[in-house]
Every structure is written in structure tokens, then in C-alpha cells.
Automatic annotation (TrEMBL), chains A, B:
<dbReference type="InterPro" id="IPR014710">
    <property type="entry name" value="RmlC-like_jellyroll"/>
</dbReference>
<dbReference type="InterPro" id="IPR018335">
    <property type="entry name" value="Tscrpt_reg_HTH_Crp-type_CS"/>
</dbReference>
<keyword id="KW-0238">DNA-binding</keyword>
<feature type="domain" description="HTH crp-type">
    <location>
        <begin position="171"/>
        <end position="244"/>
    </location>
</feature>
<dbReference type="Pfam" id="PF00027">
    <property type="entry name" value="cNMP_binding"/>
</dbReference>
<dbReference type="InterPro" id="IPR036388">
    <property type="entry name" value="WH-like_DNA-bd_sf"/>
</dbReference>
<keyword id="KW-0805">Transcription regulation</keyword>
<dbReference type="InterPro" id="IPR036390">
    <property type="entry name" value="WH_DNA-bd_sf"/>
</dbReference>
<keyword id="KW-0804">Transcription</keyword>
<dbReference type="InterPro" id="IPR018490">
    <property type="entry name" value="cNMP-bd_dom_sf"/>
</dbReference>
<dbReference type="InterPro" id="IPR050397">
    <property type="entry name" value="Env_Response_Regulators"/>
</dbReference>
<dbReference type="InterPro" id="IPR000595">
    <property type="entry name" value="cNMP-bd_dom"/>
</dbReference>
<dbReference type="Pfam" id="PF13545">
    <property type="entry name" value="HTH_Crp_2"/>
</dbReference>
<dbReference type="InterPro" id="IPR012318">
    <property type="entry name" value="HTH_CRP"/>
</dbReference>
<protein>
    <submittedName>
        <fullName>Fumarate/nitrate reduction transcriptional regulator Fnr</fullName>
    </submittedName>
</protein>
<feature type="domain" description="Cyclic nucleotide-binding">
    <location>
        <begin position="37"/>
        <end position="107"/>
    </location>
</feature>
Length: 253, 253
DNA sequence: CGCTGAGTTGATAATGTTCAAATTTAGTGG
DNA sequence: CCACTAAATTTGAACATTATCAACTCAGCG
């Protein structure tokens, strides 16, 4: 019963999915459970977790899950599609703080102030599981595995932010783009998808706003890597032709 | 009974403190408790927390608290001095991920992998409280306030990393340096220290490695801000002459 | 089939890096 | 306390990378 899960993960997601309104999905039968919040929980625990998870209807492309400074109530697990988290700077520019794929959790930056520190918007039709934080807290207190795992998820968010910090601080445009592509590749593989061929759900502008580069620079890097036969780029469709070369580009110097 | 707390916070910390080995400090009488881990806990809860906290002898300047890939056992609260957290890139360069002042918690990036994702080193004589994570987890399960507060601390770490990401991605050298100075200023004020006059415990190289700039650029920014009468810079001793102007520099554009 | 927004490409400019050297500060041993 | 040395900081000049501005191309869509 994987209907509704990763509906948009394939190569062809140009048309909105029929949306079967299959909300029967639960954590036990979700094939993302191994990489999502239920990871490391036992069957009975998963059922308990399942009781607090809320599944709502899909988000349309461009729709917001929450906005900066909204009251914080829940964290979210992506079930299908891609969510972009971003902040808007004083002068109106956008800093993308992360792209979230199925099985990944977002919204944890809202805990500290009880208000979201970033906005979250669907880059394509997407569905998410909402996990009310107060329920999660209560459940964590009685489920050590869950508490541990959630601490780990937050910690991972920290280490990933630190990686991005390092990338922005020390790497050239080529290195940044290569690192992003490798990250997408790795995360695809975790979900049993191709590590070498995929469709980027984000625009070049989004990539630039994530990597601290202008669209033009991002575009030039793609062209360059294409010319070097490291990638085959056809609009958003990416094929990694030489992953070793891409790794070399990613940590040149 | 504040002996041993913030011993090095004053203007003159040129000679190592006598180190009275006063480890009698506990959370209840620590004047940092209002901004540190005990925040929001009740007296009896603070006593319980106190029982798991380990206080050891001070770190000398340059000494490591932990190193990247060390086994993760504990998080640490800074009691006195400054701790620099940093990662070393493949090519040997250093990315500073944070400076930690008294009352601040570090080491949370180690939770996700059970090994530290960064190294931590004392920038001056420093002392820390060690909080074994497994004890903290157990205590959190029975003290909702503590669990909540620790989630919030981790979340704050995330939002602060996101701010740094934005700074690195969107800001000029002047803006970055100004933002750092304002951050130091604010955090000093939180500890009842001067918001306008302080000694920077970190070197220009450290600042550069934090802000993604070379030493030369950092130095030039200091000179420029000095010439503009925004700062008075005398080596590590900084006086903010015009904090409004500094704020304008920090969010120019 | 033309329109619109996304993406690409080129030329020029700006910001910060790199390399080199001078200068100041901090530490060490007599 | 002073002389000496190493380390940190500052300053200058040339260079490199990426941003900016502008024009063009392409894909998708009514």
C-alpha cells in the first residue's frame, strides 16, 4: 500500500497527480519509516506515534506549509514531493536553508521561539505528515527511543547546517553546485531511487539562493560540468555521467 | 560566591588567574543559571540537574575540550572564558562554527552520530560544566521543563546556524564583521557586561575563519570602521563608539 | 503560434583573495 | 628589565572569482 507515497518522485511529474485522497497511509505501512521518525522504534511504539501524526491533503506547488513568524505548533515529515525552507532577508532577498525530501523532517527551527524561524513551501505537489510538537514531547518522555531519535534528528539538522556553513564559507561555485548534486544523489539512493539520474525539483534561482550564488553563476557551472562530460543537463533533468569526477569537483583544492 | 565564575571576563586577563580550585559552584548559586541550562527550572529541579553536572579543572588557553570524531558523551556549559568550536576541512582549512561564552551550551552536534562533529578549544583560560548526555536524557524524561528547554536550546543552535548561513551567503565583509561585533555586544549585555567595550577573546584569524573571510579582509574592515569613528580598535580591545552606525553597517543594502 | 517566465550566455565591474612586506605585540631567556 | 624572536596584525598592489547588467534562447502553455 504505497499509494500516495512518493507520487512525484519519478521522472515524469509534469502533470499534477490525480490525488486519490488515500489518507489511509500510516507509519507502520509507510515505506519511508526506516529513514523517517519511526526509525529505531518498535512496532507497538510506531503505533503510538502513529496516533499523534496528522495526515492532511496534499500541498499544491507553491503552497506554503508555514511562514516565518507563524506560531509554531508542529514539525513535519515529508511524505512526497519536495519542500523548500527559506528565510527572507531585510532587503527582500531569499536564503534557502534547506530542501526537504520524503522521509525528512522540517520545522524544528520553530521550537526555540515558539514561532517558525523560516518559511516552508512546496516546490511541487507534496504531502506531509504533521506531528504536533506538544504531543511529540509527551510521547518522548515515555518513549526513550523516540526522545533519543528526535534529539538525533535535531542534532543532524545542526551538523547539516554546519556543512552548509563550511560550503558557503570555503568553497568555489563549482564545488558548491557539485556538493548539492551529490547530496541530492545520496538522498535519492537512500530512498531506493537512482543516484545518477533525477529531476531537480528546485529552480536555478532556488539553487542559487541555497548556495549563495546568482542564477547566472549556477547556470554557468551546469554548462561547464556539461562541457566536461561530468553531467548531462537537460533543463531540470540531470544525469551524472561521471560521479567520481563530480566528487573531485566537490572537494577540489 | 561567584568566585571562579567569569574570572576572565574583565578587561585585564593578561595573566592566568590564580585558579582557586573552587569547584564548590553549583547550579543554584551560579549567577549564569538564568541564561544557562537551569533556566525555567524550579529550585528542586535545579538541584536534581546539579547532581548530574560535573565540574572539572579549568582548561588552559589552547587546550581542547573535545575533538572532531571523538566519542560523544556529554554536552558542556561554559562557566568562564570562551570556547571556539570548529571543523577542519579536507584541505586543512578551518571553519569556525561558533564562539561560546559563559552560560552557553556546546557539543550538541555530537548527538546525531554519537561522535563530535566539531572540535572545541579554549581561546583563553576557561572552565566548563560537563553534562553527561545519557543522564540528561534520563532526567529530561521525568522533567518536562528540562526536556522542553533542551529542545529549545538545540533549536536555537539551528536558528543561529541559519543566521550564519544567511550572513555568509548574502553579506559583505563589512556587514559580517559588524554583525559579529553586535552579537558579542548583545551576549555581553546578557551577562551584565559592557555592550560597548570589551576584549575580543578570538584572533583575527578566528574571526576570518568564522565569517568566511581572510585575515587581511577582517583587518581592513576594522581599520575602516575605526577611520569612520564607529569603533575604537586597540588590538583585541574594542570600543563601540557609535552602535547605531554599527547596526547600519550590519544591515546595509 | 505567440507569449511568458526560466534559463543561458557574454561583457564589464566590484569585492575580496593572494602574495609580499612592514609593523606591532607577546613571549622568552638572560 | 631588556634584548631578541616568533607570532599576530596591518597595509599595499596585483589578480581572480563572482556579481551585475543586458541580451538572447528555449520550454511550456494558453
Amino acid at each position: 500500500m504505497d499509494v500516495g507515497v512518493e507520487v512525484n518522485a519519478g521522472v515524469d511529474n509534469s502533470s499534477p497527480t490525480p490525488c486519490t485522497h488515500d489518507f489511509q497511509v500510516n507509519c507502520s505501512n509507510c515505506r519511508l519509516s526506516a529513514i523517517c521518525l519511526p526509525f529505531s522504534l518498535e512496532a507497538t511504539e510506531i503505533d503510538e506515534l502513529d496516533r499523534i501524526v496528522q495526515r492532511s491533503k496534499p500541498l499544491q506547488k507553491g503552497q506554503h506549509l508555514y511562514r516565518e513568524s507563524d506560531d509554531f505548533q508542529s514539525v513535519y515529515a515529508v511524505r512526497a514531493g519536495t519542500i523548500k525552507a527559506y528565510r527572507t532577508t531585510d532587503d527582500g532577498r531569499e536564503q534557502v536553508t534547506g530542501f526537504y525530501f520524503p522521509g525528512e523532517i522540517l520545522g524544528m527551527d520553530g521550537i526555540s521561539n515558539n514561532s517558525h524561524a523560516s518559511s516552508a513551501k512546496a516546490l511541487e505537489t507534496a504531502s506531509v505528515c504533521e506531528i504536533p510538537f506538544s504531543s511529540l514531547e509527551k510521547l518522548s518522555a515515555v518513549m526513550p527511543h523516540l526522545q533519543r531519535h528526535f534529539f538525533q534528528l535535531m542534532s543532524r539538522e545542526i551538523t547539516e547546517d554546519q556543512q552548509l556553513i563550511t560550503l558557503l564559507s570555503k568553497s568555489s561555485a563549482d564545488e558548491r553546485v557539485a556538493a548539492l548534486l551529490l547530496s541530492v544523489s545520496t538522498r535519492n539512493a537512500r530512498r531506493q531511487l537512482s543516484a545518477t539520474q533525477f529531476r531537480l525539483s528546485m529552480s536555478r534561482v532556488d539553487i542559487g539562493n541555497y548556495l549563495g550564488l546568482t542564477v547566472e553563476t549556477v547556470s554557468r557551472v551546469f554548462s561547464r560540468l556539461q562541457k566536461l562530460k561530468v553531467l548531462d543537463v537537460e533543463n531540470k533533468e540531470i544525469q551524472i555521467l561521471d560521479i567520481e569526477a563530480l566528487r573531485k569537483v566537490a572537494d577540489a583544492r
